[in-house]
UniProtKB/TrEMBL annotation:
Keywords: Oxidoreductase. PANTHER family: DEHYDROGENASE/REDUCTASE (SDR FAMILY) MEMBER 4, DEHYDROGENASE_REDUCTASE 4. It comes from the Bacteria. It comes from Gordonia aquimaris. NCBIfam families: PRK07231.1 (NF005559). GO terms for molecular function: oxidoreductase activity. Belongs to the short-chain dehydrogenases/reductases (SDR) family. It holds the Pfam family adh_short_C2. This is SDR family oxidoreductase.
Amino acid sequence: MINAPGDLTGKCAVVTGASRGIGLAIATELARCGASVVITARKPDPLAAAAEDIRAAVAGATIVTSPGNAGDESHRAEAIAAAVELGGVDILVNNTGINPIMGPLMDADLSAVRKIFDVNVAGTLGFIQEAYRAGMREHGGSIVNISSVAGLRSTGAIAAYGASKAALIRLTEELAWELGPGIRVNAIAPSVVRTTFASGLIAGDNEARIAAGYPMARIGEPVDVARAAAFLAGDASAWITGETIRVDGGMMATGGA
């Protein structure tokens, strides 16, 4: 059955890193569109609070929590199994991402770099493998990977993170080729979005300075990314796969950093 644009009724989604920020906004938007949603994050209490926030925002929403570390194979299996219990995983949004180090790669601690790639890239692939084996292989689905404009252009400030997000974009393209036509795989590359993750970057006068360089004259809000994710998750984007959509207020179009 093809759903109407914006309608995810009868679908079940898994959203990783959903206790706050972009992940929470995506889970809320998918629930608003009618999907049942399994949300994951590392800490149980903030995840439970996020579930209550979604239920308060979307009357009657079906929200299941699955706390755990995205780098843990057993956690990934449990999260996907929770979706199967709700009827099967139709949508997977890989939002979990870490950035424990700043600065150039020549000064980077390699153990931290390995951790970034383990969570941001290998953990994402692990979730996709679990969803594939748990039913997507047979009935298809939509996968959305949250990358970053740092994966499209060098920054010098978050070099290891940017390299991992570039790898995630290539992973998206490879899997779109490998898993089509039944499974679509796309990515979103946000610029600066108002989240805890970006709080240091936009502190003080920095927000106004950054916003002034964007054609849209503001930094992003989590819902900006969430609406793009809902579009890619649903049937309105049925002939889109292997794409990375920039949700950046036009920043990349300016040629600026």
